[in-house]
Design goal:
Layout lengths: L1 H4 L4 H18 L7 H9 L17 H20 L10 H9 L25 H20 L4 H10 L3 H26 L2
Length: 189
């Protein structure tokens, strides 16, 4: 069990992802997590209201199964396999938090500052922008780009699709803008 509890090297995860992508491409399927929402809405009768939601959802059942397995695997890993030792994060991460005024705000085993991402933040301008507008733009962006980050960066690039390359470049530019310009500005309001 020790091997399961330890972080695995990047090349093990990368090889596993490449193998799964090869199997998907070989079987003619495309991976995309955000497409599951469309499938669920179709299953609930959304096709009566929109032509976009009117399709044979049974053809996408494998993707819903994949999503259910991902959620179950994440729950099992979090519940039974997580380490009680603090995660090893780089010193530059903590330097960035210090520059944003969030010193000592990340608890052991956590990845995000609790004071920044919680429902109490909805009373502040920064919280409204980060949580509400950020959530809107993630959902809108996934729909507008024709897929989410995992769909484009893993599946689309594996299929050598130019629109996915453009979307991934946009994701990186957006991430750099938010983390280097927008967050520092919002947190200093």
């Amino acid at each position: 069990m020790d091997i399961i509890h330890q972080p695995w090297p990047w090349y093990v995860g990368g090889t596993a992802i490449a193998a799964i992508m090869f199997l998907l491409i070989f079987s003619g399927k495309e991976f995309g997590f955000s497409d599951n929402l469309r499938t669920i809405v179709c299953m609930c009768g959304g096709g009566k209201f929109s032509k976009f939601l009117d399709f044979d959802w049974k053809q996408r059942l494998w993707n819903l199964t994949f999503m259910a397995g991902t959620l179950l695997g994440g729950w099992i890993a979090y519940t039974y396999m997580r380490s009680e030792e603090p995660m090893q994060l780089s010193s530059s991460f903590f330097s960035t938090l210090d520059s944003w005024g969030l010193t000592g705000d990340v608890k052991p085993g956590e990845l995000i500052p609790e004071s920044l991402f919680n429902f109490g933040q909805l009373g502040s301008i920064a919280g409204i922008v980060i949580i509400i507008f950020g959530g809107f733009f993630v959902g809108f962006g996934a729909r507008y780009a024709g897929g989410c980050t995992s769909g484009h960066a893993i599946s689309g690039l594996s299929n050598l699709q130019l629109p996915s390359l453009i979307a991934v470049i946009g994701f990186f530019i957006g991430g750099l803008f938010v983390s280097n310009i927008l967050y520092p500005w919002l947190l200093n309001l």
